Amino acid sequence: MITRNVFLALSRSAWATHAARIWGLRFGARRFVAGETVETAIEAVRELNALGIKATLDHLGESVTDAKTASEMAECCFRTLDAIRSAGVDSNLSLKLTQIGLDVDRGLCRTHLGRILDRAREYGNFVRIDMEGYAHNEATLSLFEELRAIYGETVGAVIQAYLYKSEADVERLSVHSPNLRFVKGAYKESPEVAYPDKADVDRNFVRLVEAHAKRGHYAAIATHDEAIIARAIEFALCNGIPKTAFEFQMLYGIRPELQRRLADDGYTVRVYVPFGDDWYGYFMRRLAERPANVWFVLKSMRKS
Ligand code: FDA
């Protein structure tokens, strides 16, 4: 728990983020990040597609505090959608609202998101709005609701099982028949808003997915937890939910053998493929999830 908190605190450090950009992909980050350019990321997607696995590309970026950077980040999203289309790979796009200006001005963020969704709709593609820390939760859900009403199935959102409010949020969003990604939650949250105990988070994850699926809405089950995956498969079988009504999602570099096994069994599997030079916060969250990764990092530091 202490190690987790240290990495989550480090993930928010502005100086370390800046230093990481200068150093480039180091200290084992390459295991979780598919390079710094869109070309290398597209290559990673091609390799996944060859195994029957779909992707969602994320040009890394978050916590932007000025309008100029937010516009540059929106441009990166356009370029990613263009690259997916011209390469003909099977991938959609994931983005974070603080990357395109949520902390600068809601209206600016709304404008960027609308333009990105216009492009995605034109290409017949899909954009998933990642969920960030609790402070951004409500603003993210309300923008999603606003844009879902305009862009329909071009846009999806994320629900974090560690938040007490998520059950009510799934209920509230159900009027939109949304495509929701379910995750456990990767940020450091207070026990006032989130279950501190992992067993409660796991139980809530299952409850939320089952409630959503029973309503007949599309679920992206984003976890590497084999017990939860096995339970979802059993639930689908027992309730006559077809394989086309849900997909499994995992992160690039994590449990690749499980990704392949599920794809070979005929399930839709989508891997979240992050790329770009703003890899530091993402990498620290991956270390926080699994302190054993620190040994892997120390080994790669010895080699570099
Ligand atoms: P759990 O942490 O219980 O891990 C289960 C098993 O998975 C572990 O025993 C281990 O084998 C493996 N594992 C998990 N994490 C690992 C790691 N870092 N390194 C190596 N092995 C690991 N969060 C969020 O707050 N907002 C979001 O928008 C998203 N988006 C998102 C998309 C996708 C596709 C995924 C898979 C995850 C996210 N997350 C997220 C992250 C999520 O909240 C969560 O932190 C991680 O998925 C880890 O939790 P698990 O569900 O895998 O379970």
From TrEMBL:
Q: Which PANTHER family match?
A: PROLINE DEHYDROGENASE 1, MITOCHONDRIAL (PTHR13914:SF0), PROLINE OXIDASE (PTHR13914)
Its keywords, alphabetically, are: FAD, Flavoprotein, Nucleotide-binding, Oxidoreductase, Proline metabolism
Q: List the source organism.
A: Cohnella suwonensis
The EC number on file is 1.5.5.2
Q: Which reaction does it catalyse?
A: L-proline + a quinone = (S)-1-pyrroline-5-carboxylate + a quinol + H(+)
Return the Gene3D superfamilies for the record: 3.20.20.220
Entry protein name: proline dehydrogenase
Per the record, the pathway is: Amino-acid degradation; L-proline degradation into L-glutamate; L-glutamate from L-proline: step 1/2
Entries under InterPro entries matching the protein = FAD-linked_oxidoreductase-like, PRODH_bac_arc, Proline_DH_dom, Proline_oxidase
Q: Which cofactor does it need?
A: FAD
Q: Which residues form the Proline dehydrogenase domain?
A: 42-297
